[in-house]
Design a protein that fits this description.
With 174 residues, the chain is an alpha/beta fold. 49% of the residues lie in helices and 16% in strands. The protein starts with a helix and ends with a strand.
């Protein structure tokens, strides 16, 4: 009940970050959030919900950020690549984007997060070479303040110096 009030009264854009329950994607869209991030790897039967999500997002003018995370990659990709490789991250994001495209929805931003900045940088390079969607940069679980800041700055610097990346997020632990 509070989300519509928060989204409406906030002086900054409220972006909902949804995990596990697809019903919250719809609730965030209907609440008027500026954008909604979905993690396809941990939302139950996500691929089956894309048509409905695309329609709701389109009807409300709500951008969707497809947030692929190394820790929740589809098990088929883990079997194919053996681990969360740059190729697996990029393939997952592009696959999910293609599902939205099938329903004529392209108001998408993509992120692929990994705690290893080298893997993260290469995944974004591959994405930038294969799509024109805005890219949201982030090193997931970067670590405590000093370590996390260094890891993020190195990764962001490498990508931004090549013109890759549209928004950033720094994820630090206590």
């Amino acid at each position: 009940d509070a989300l519509p009030v928060i989204a409406r009264k906030s002086q900054i854009p409220v972006i909902a970050d949804i995990h596990f329950q697809p019903k919250y994607v719809f609730a965030a869209i209907e609440a008027g959030c500026a954008a909604v991030r979905v993690n396809p790897g941990n939302i139950k039967q996500f691929d089956d919900k894309v048509k409905e999500i695309a329609k709701a997002a389109k009807d409300h003018g709500t951008p969707i950020r497809i947030g692929v995370n190394a820790g929740s990659l589809d098990r088929r990709l883990l079997q194919k690549y053996g681990r969360a490789t740059p190729e697996a991250l990029a393939e997952s994001a592009l696959w999910e984007a293609s599902l939205f495209e099938e329903h004529d929805f392209r108001d998408i931003k993509i992120s692929v997060k990994h705690n290893d900045p080298v893997v993260m940088v290469e995944a974004y390079r591959q994405l930038a070479a294969q799509c024109d969607y805005p890219l949201h940069l982030g090193v997931t679980e970067a670590g405590p303040a000093f370590q996390g800041t260094i890891k993020s700055a190195v990764a962001f610097g490498a990508l931004l110096s090549q013109g890759i990346g549209d928004t950033i997020r720094v994820s630090l632990s206590a």
